[in-house]
Design goal:
The chain is mostly helical. It has helices at 8-36, 40-70, 78-105, 114-140, 146-171, 177-212.
Length: 213
């Protein structure tokens, strides 16, 4: 049974919030791609876009919290819903911070590593997409939450594997040590997005069980 049977407003706000997080992950992936392709005009546009999306996500999260308390909605699940939104918001916060780090530090990424960085960003995007589908299910059909959680873990593990292979490639190269360390940092920087998606998935698994008890 849907979690919000009597409040279309809050249901709409949560839907929009999840849309914003999903769009943020797509903007992030395209931002990393633009940086790797040295299309700095597009890259800067992605930073502007993700900044606006992050602000919108924060605003929607606060609006949902206000409605939950002002209307005394689902007090038994309120903490779970707010925890879910907070952790989902961490995804777009992390993606935004990652793009800003690219902008600030401007890592010199050899062209032969572009494909591995792009595959890493793609795996992160897929992990976020899967967790957003599961989050929507939590509010509409809790029994189907687990149907996509395995995908989140799959893509998070894939991101770990790609990142590990990338770091091995970096440290087996003839680049100087400082350059290697900088490139490793940005592999970790991208990988964090999938870690945040997995953190949401872990919470969803627990919240879903609580709703069915």
């Amino acid at each position: 049974m849907p979690l919000f049977r009597s409040s279309k407003i809050i249901e709409s706000q949560i839907d929009e919030f999840l849309d914003v997080v999903a769009e943020g992950s797509l903007v992030y992936k395209k931002g990393v791609k633009a940086y790797l392709e040295k299309d700095m005009t597009d890259f800067e546009a992605r930073i502007v876009a993700i900044d606006k999306l992050e602000s919108r996500a924060d605003k929607l999260s606060k609006e949902v919290e206000a409605h939950l308390y002002s209307q005394s909605l689902i007090p038994e699940h309120r903490g779970d819903v707010l925890g879910l939104l907070e952790n989902a918001d961490n995804i777009i916060d992390t993606a935004k911070a990652s793009l800003y780090q690219f902008s600030v530090e401007q890592p010199d990424i050899p062209e032969e590593l572009n494909d591995q960085y792009l595959k890493l960003a793609e795996a992160c995007y897929e992990a976020v997409e899967a967790v957003i589908v599961s989050a929507r299910a939590f509010f509409r059909d809790v029994d189907s939450v687990k149907d996509n959680l395995y995908k989140v873990h799959h893509f998070e593990k894939e991101a770990d594997s790609i990142s590990d292979a990338l770091k091995r490639t970096i440290f087996s190269s003839s680049l100087d040590l400082a350059h290697k360390i900088h490139l490793r940092y940005f592999a970790l920087n991208v990988e964090k997005v999938s870690d945040k998606a997995e953190a949401v998935a872990d919470r969803l698994a627990i919240y879903a069980i609580k709703r069915t008890i």
